[in-house]
Amino acid sequence: MKIVDKGSGAPLVLVPPLQGRWEYMSGTVDALAGSFRVITFSLCGERGSGLRFDRARGLANFESQVVQALDDRGIDRAVICGVSFGGIVALRVAAAHPQRTAALVLASTPGPRFRLRPRHLMYARMPWLFGPLFLVEVPRRFRPEFAAAMPDPRARRRFARMQLRNLLRAPVSLRRMAERARLLDGIDVDELCARITAPTLVVTGERHLDFVVPVEGSIDYARRIAGAQAVVLERTGHHGTITRPQAFARLVRTFADGDRHAAA
User: Fold this and answer.
1) 161: exposed, middle or buried (C-beta count within 10 Å: 0-12, 13-18, 19+)?
2) How many domains does the chain have?
3) Burial of 230 by CB count in 10 Å (0-12 exposed, 13-18 middle, 19+ buried)?
4) Domain with 172 in it: what CATH number?
5) Domain limits at 116?
6) So what's the pLDDT on residue 131?
7) pTM for the whole thing?
8) For a designed S-S bond to 237, which of 57, 72, 145, 208 qualifies (C-beta 3.0 to 4.6 A apart)?
9) Are 207 and 235 in contact (CB under 8 A)?
């Protein structure tokens, strides 16, 4: 298994979103590494992960991957931080392995009983046919969010160039993305939420800027997980972890510092 290990301090496992490659979150890793020892990886099944995906195990593949990363680095407990699809993985880890979970961070996570939109379900069922159409949609759908997060056009151009470089060195697989998306459709996480004992932070963007998952659904985790906190990462939508990584890292650091003080 190929693992990225960066920074120092309390350990934090960062679970990537649906596209599956950690490289697209390199800025987030750097920002978090200012306060944490960040452990991350590409999701199993990706060429950069070193691990195969077993279809029969579904989401359990990724849960095991988090535990394997902790074991590989000799870490007993860590903050488990999942972004979007990765939030569902983080939730499963926190529910099944409370002794390994110092805290849980869910960022823009699809809400309980999340359903794919009919159009996206069609894309997920036939990615080889509709994948190009999905890619054409992306700039139009995300333009308002990127403009809000990065008002300076020069910053947006730098961000676009960085993502293009990531695309060239870590190309995404529409087939694997579709496979992961199908695992989320209609997922029931009520039992998982009831089993969470770790301090939990739920991070969302602003309602009018998230064009991927309903923010209300994401916030629902704060109501279902005992003692959970909810916070909005302003001027962002679904992609605030990568468009405003320093602001996201500050939220996580403040949450973790507050939890340590409460425990003392």
Assistant:
1) exposed
2) 1
3) middle
4) 3.40.50.1820
5) 4-263
6) 57
7) 0.91
8) 145
9) no
